Each structure stands twice: as structure tokens, then as C-alpha cells.
Amino acid sequence: MKEYTKEEMEHMHRMMNGESAWDRMKRKSREEPLVPAGVALTCFALVAATVGVKTGNKAYANNMFRLRVAAQGFTIVAMVGGSLYYTYKEQKQKEALAQLQERSKTEPTKKDA
Q: How far apart are the first and last CA of the chain?
């Protein structure tokens, strides 16, 4: 009988029972932790810029608007980088599975020996 990894068990559970929006958000945050960090930094910079505008501190507000743009850029880079990483990882898993299947076809079984 095959032993399944934790990731495989979670994937099968999602496929059979579906996945709520909250569960999907938690899973994606675990997979790509830099994206939520970038979103949080963007929100912080936007709120801080709003405070700077309200208090009349133009230099502070301008710096926070610049930070917001940088944080948004960081978030986009994190999203693209994570997407490329998981695509590469998935491709390597498929290649490994194909090699394993090829090996199992060519190697003699215990019955043959």
C-alpha cells in the first residue's frame, strides 16, 4: 500500500471536499509568504501617506507614496517569482514521475525473477 505525503493528503482532501475561500487564502499564504507581506506593506504605506496628507506633512506623505509604489512592485515581483518557482517545481515533479514510471516498466518484477 502506498504511503502518501502530507501535501498529497491535503491535495486529495481539497479535491474531494472543495476548499473555502479562507482555506485557500491560508494555503496560498503558506506557499508564497512574500505576497501577503508585500500587500501588508502596501496597505501600511497607503495609510501612513493618508495620515501625512491629513496632518499637512507633505515630505512624509510623499515618502510614504514612494514606499507604496515600491511595495507594490515588490508584491508583483513576489507573485511572478512564486508563480515561476511553482511552475518549475511542478514540471520537475512530472519529470520525476515519468522517469519512475519508465523505470518500473523496464525493471523486472519479483514475479519475473
A: 21
User: How far apart (Å, rounded) are the C-alpha atoms in residues 70 and 64?
Assistant: 10
Are the C-beta atoms of residues 60 and 54 closer than 8 Å to each other?
A: no
Per the CB < 8 A criterion, the answer to whether 92 and 76 are in contact is: no
Q: Name residue 27's amino acid.
A: R
Q: What is this structure's pTM?
A: 0.67
Instruction: Classify residue 74 by burial, with Cβ atoms within 10 Å: 0-12, 13-18, 19+.
Output: middle
Note whether 71 and 45 are within 8 A (CB).
Answer: yes
pLDDT in tens, 22-37: 888 888 888 888 999 9
